[in-house]
Design goal:
alpha/beta, 2 domains, eight-stranded mixed β-sheet, Spore Coat Polysaccharide Biosynthesis Protein SpsA, Chain A, about 325 residues, 8 strands, disordered N terminus
Length: about 325
């Protein structure tokens, strides 16, 4: 692999979000340097400090200044958030800063092996994939707390999204530069980046079995609530995949169906009373008939659904993006 002469356009960007990983960072950086030295790639490492309260940012700042002088073709860059905004926001900021032709993401806790980087890079450059997702087939996590819920979560994600991956939430992924520049990772959608990429038109997606390391320092930053949030996000992205650009197609259709159904029922109730009156048959007040209230509720809900779809279309066309995070420092 030949080195480019343009130092502003490295071959590879490595984006690493982190939260309180000061003990892991020196070992991780040394490991990355050792692996990439053997394949002669020009690269940049971008650390996104998601509101750490330990010495993580101090270490990143020191290393960044050192690399500027000693190895300008392999810089270390950093972004420090003002507070803890979450992994999705960290990845979004890292993707905006990344300049490499290939972008690789990995976690900072040493559970993702840098030894996988050359092979992932090759799959993007030589085999032409848009996105390669890691698959931690053999895991060192607790079976009950992570393995089984993860399998259920990944099964549901495959069925819902149509993207056939075994490990959606693996932090170790490789992307073409165009992919990360054209997807919007927000909320907690980092779990579904392959789905976001597919929706953006990048369908050449595959997976690679990667090595999983046992955590060496600290404890996991995610609790059981991540699985609940994950399934809620899955429902969100399933909706976004089909109706994000045309909310009226969903809400308008539901609204029309419910309104027409309610109108038909109301017409039947009113018509039945008029028929009985005309033929001197016993009748009861419309308001005494429970079907009248069912019809009224259906028409009201139908109207609300239709208005929701209309407002969604207006917001989609005129809404401005909200600021999702504040950057305290950038190197």
């Amino acid at each position: 692999m030949k080195k480019p002469t343009n130092l502003n356009n490295p071959q590879l960007s490595i984006v690493i979000p982190l939260l309180n990983e000061a003990k892991s960072l020196p070992e991780l950086q040394s490991w990355i340097d050792r692996v990439l030295e053997s394949v002669s790639l020009d690269y940049e490492v971008i650390y996104i400090d998601d509101g750490s309260t330990d010495t993580s940012w101090s270490w990143i700042s020191s290393l960044s200044r050192k690399r500027q002088h000693e190895s300008p073709s392999r810089p270390v860059k950093g972004i420090r958030f003002q507070a803890n905004y979450g992994k999705s926001q960290a990845l979004h900021a890292g993707f905006q800063l990344a300049q490499g032709d290939v972008v690789i993401t990995m976690d900072a806790d040493l559970q993702d092996s840098p030894e996988e980087i050359p092979a992932l890079y090759s799959m993007i450059v030589d085999q032409g994939y848009d996105l390669v997702s890691g698959w931690k087939k053999k895991r060192y996590d607790s079976v009950l707390s992570k393995n089984l819920p993860s399998k259920l979560f990944n099964w549901a994600a495959r069925r819902t999204s149509g993207v056939q991956l075994n490990d959606f939430n693996c932090g170790l992924k490789a992307y073409k530069k165009a992919v990360v520049k054209n997807i919007d990772v927000h909320g907690e959608m980092h779990r579904y980046i392959p789905v976001l990429a597919k929706n953006a038109g990048y369908s050449n997606i595959t997976q690679k079995e990667v090595q999983h390391q046992a955590r060496k320092y600290g404890t996991t930053k995610f609790g059981y609530d991540r699985f609940i949030n994950g399934f809620l996000d899955l429902i969100t992205i399933a909706f976004i995949s089909k109706y994000a650009k045309r909310p009226m197609h969903l809400f308008g259709s539901l609204g029309v169906i419910m309104f027409v159904l309610g109108f038909v029922i109301a017409a039947y109730v009113g018509g039945a009373k008029l028929y009985n009156l005309a033929n001197d048959l016993p009748y009861r007040l419309v308001t005494d008939n429970p079907w009248f209230f069912i019809a009224l509720t259906s028409m009201i809900l139908g109207t609300l659904f239709f208005v929701a779809g209309f407002l969604g279309e207006l917001i989609l066309r005129s809404g401005a993006r909200n600021e999702r995070y504040k950057i305290a420092e950038q190197l």
